[in-house]
TrEMBL record:
GO terms for molecular function: lytic endotransglycosylase activity. Its EC number is 4.2.2.-. Residues 175-188 have a biased composition (Low complexity). Keywords: Cell wall biogenesis/degradation, Lipoprotein, Lyase. InterPro entries: RlpA, RlpA-like_DPBB, RlpA-like_sf, RplA. Gene3D superfamilies: RlpA-like domain. Residues 1-36, 170-199 are annotated as: Disordered. Residues 189-199 have a biased composition (Basic residues). This is Endolytic peptidoglycan transglycosylase RlpA. Lytic transglycosylase with a strong preference for naked glycan strands that lack stem peptides. Residues 67-154 form the RlpA-like protein double-psi beta-barrel domain. One of its GO terms (biological process) is peptidoglycan metabolic process. The lineage of its organism: Bacteria, Pseudomonadati, Pseudomonadota, Betaproteobacteria, Burkholderiales.
């Protein structure tokens, strides 16, 4: 019979597994082995009052209204009526939010790549947990969201002249150009129905 080689059955018999000790891994009062700072895992919360560091070209920090997941919707809702009464255009720079008033302008900043897009709120949603805004397909393409499906973003409400989004200053005229005038409802045609004759 040939001698057992290293790692063979003879070594397995010698190296037996020892039971784990029933002591604490770190003795009481000992310093922690890692000094990793705490992480904020719940991003889908209101961030009113928080300051953002801005992006290159911005004139300074701005307030973040909300942080969380952004999703997008497109062809399946194209030309359907939104909650505001407008027809949804999947290539327009619009979005759905649960609480913001219609026609509010919001700068959506990707927390993945720093790109930004200016959108106008025209619809309600999203209703999935952890998501704070639903972008149109056109807006989602601007910040590279199409391939990912869901992306972490920060929302800033554009409510003052001189605020910036996407590296350029937002003008007051843009808001008025984005909000289409409400079309008057078409008049109903009246049809006269002849009375039924009695028999």
């Amino acid at each position: 019979m040939p001698p057992a080689t290293e790692g063979g059955p003879a070594d397995k018999e010698d190296a037996k597994l020892l039971p784990l000790p029933r002591k604490l891994a770190v003795p009481p009062g000992a310093p922690a082995r890692s000094s990793v700072p705490s992480v904020r895992y719940d991003l889908a919360v209101s961030g009113i009052g928080e300051a953002d560091d801005g992006v290159p070209g911005d004139s300074g920090p701005r307030e973040i209204f909300e942080r969380g997941g952004a999703s997008w919707y497109g062809i399946q809702f194209h030309q359907r009526k939104t909650a505001s009464g407008e027809r949804f255009d999947m290539m327009a720079m619009t979005a759905a939010h649960k609480t913001l008033p219609f026609n509010t302008r919001v700068c959506v900043r990707s927390l993945v790549n720093g790109s930004e897009v200016l959108v106008r709120i025209t619809d309600r949603g999203p209703y999935a947990q952890g998501r704070i805004i639903d972008l149109s397909r056109g807006a989602a393409e601007r910040i590279g969201l199409i391939g990912l499906g869901i992306k972490q973003v920060a929302l800033t409400i554009i409510d003052r002249e001189g605020m910036r989004c996407g590296g350029s200053e937002v003008e007051e005229d843009v808001a008025q150009a984005q909000a289409p005038a409400a079309a008057p409802a078409p008049a109903r045609r009246q049809v006269k129905v002849p009375q039924r004759r009695r028999r």
